[in-house]
Amino acid sequence: MIIELHILQNFAPANLNRDDTGSPKDCEFGGHRRARISSQCFKRAIRQAFDHQRLINPAHLASRTKRLVDEITSRLKAAGKMENDARRVVENILNGVKLTVKDDGKTQYLLFLGADEINAIAGLCEQHWETLAAIVAAPAGEESGGKKTKAKDAKKAGADAIPPEIKKATLEVLNGGKAADLALFGRMLADLPDKNVHAASQVAHAISTNKVSMEFDFYTAVDDLKPDDNQGSDMLGTVEFNSACYYRYSNLDVEQLKTNLGGDAELANKTIEAFIRAAVTAIPTGKQNSMAAHNPPSFVMAVVREAGLWSLANAFVNPIRPNREGDLIDNSIKALDAYWSELTQMYGDGQIKGRWVASLAPNGLANLKEAKVKNLPELVNRVMSQLNT
To answer: How far apart are CA 78 and CA 173, in angstroms?
Structure first.
């Protein structure tokens, strides 16, 4: 079973997702320049919503970090271990399973690990402390000629000295830890491909239904303590921004989610509900302190289907414009409604088990009007009821 979300969200002037030059991200679609918010940006906003809105128990959330050594070291220190010894033990056990730790104490790349996985690695360090501490305390070997072994060689020697049963136990705990966000968005461990997790969800880049124009905010700042006889500003600059109505698309493979969560159906249901709520309510944080573009979606459609995937982005190949019949939001809803009708006529809707629409627009639904529900809670309830039938 697959769940799809189709969302239309009109933002006031904002710079929610910037490129390397500080400009709002954009793209070309249908031969016209469109505003864009990246998939990664919305995924992070969704993950933050899981925590901030208390949609998922923190025990079932993951952390993406290079600072795993610091995190586990702090736990071992709290358990009474000396900090320097603990750090060396943690670095060695991670190197032993090819999660390379660099000289600055950070892992080679960001690791996405569930809370249970981090707890389990810390537990293994405590359980096998005497063995692991003895390995890192051993004096560095010497090469012929009396030269000390290079640091890199010493690291390799320490990692190789870890008993096979400890390495095996460490690898076994890297099972996803029943972390909901990890199960949804997946992970790749380059050096441990068998520990990769195939994402249960897909999130598209959000693109504007309308043609976008970039604008510039010229700002100045005055020093509050400057003398009265000193005229002018003490700081000035420009910030790019735009305003756009975005089409957002995402989907979730229910069976893949259950597999990623170790067959835990109850946790899978909680994750699905949390994903729908977070996907609708989460807003990126870029430049929000200066622009406060907290605009909720005007249109949300959830589709439950047995198979197949339909993005409705092509409803907006021709940029939407406001006119006498409707504003930008109204006309975007009408275009999506019409395109949905065209798709179902061409391909049929036999695999669609249900569709529900929550919309702020009083009109505009010609083909989906029978799918309209009162609000988001009802939409979520309808989806969950369909999944549990």
So the answer is: 22
**CB-CB contact of 247 with 207 (8 Å):** yes
Rounded distance between C-alpha atoms, residue 122 and residue 135, angstroms: 17
Rg from Cα positions in the chain: 26
Cβ neighbour number for residue 158 with a 10 Å cutoff: 21
Nearest to 59 by CA among 141, 168, 177, 148: 177
Q: Does pLDDT of 183 surpass 50?
A: yes
- What are the phi and psi torsion angles at 167 (to 5°)? -60, -45
224 band by pLDDT with thresholds 50, 70 and 90: confident
C-alpha 14/C-alpha 215 separation (Å) is: 10
User: Hey, is 43 helix, strand or coil?
Assistant: helix
Q: What is the pLDDT of residue 149?
A: 56
- Rounded CA separation 356/5 (Å): 10
As separate numbers, helices (DSSP H) first and strands (DSSP E) second, the chain gives 13, 11
pLDDT tens digits, residue range 39-65?
999 999 999 999 999 999 999 999 999
Is 70 exceeded by the pLDDT of residue 147?
no
Both tokens of 339, joined, read 């395109």
The DSSP bridge partners found for residue 236 are: 220
Please write the tens of the pLDDT for every residue from 268-312: 999 999 999 999 999 999 999 999 999 999 999 999 999 999 999
b/e per residue, 216-254, with b = 16+ CB within 10 A?
Answer: eeeeeeeeeeeeeeeeeeeeeeebbbbbbbbbbbbbbbb
Concatenated DSSP letters of 102-131: -TTSSBSS-EEEEHHHHHHHHHHHHHTHHH
Per DSSP, the residues of 290-332 read: HH------SEEEEEEESS-----GGGGSSPP--BTTB-HHHHH
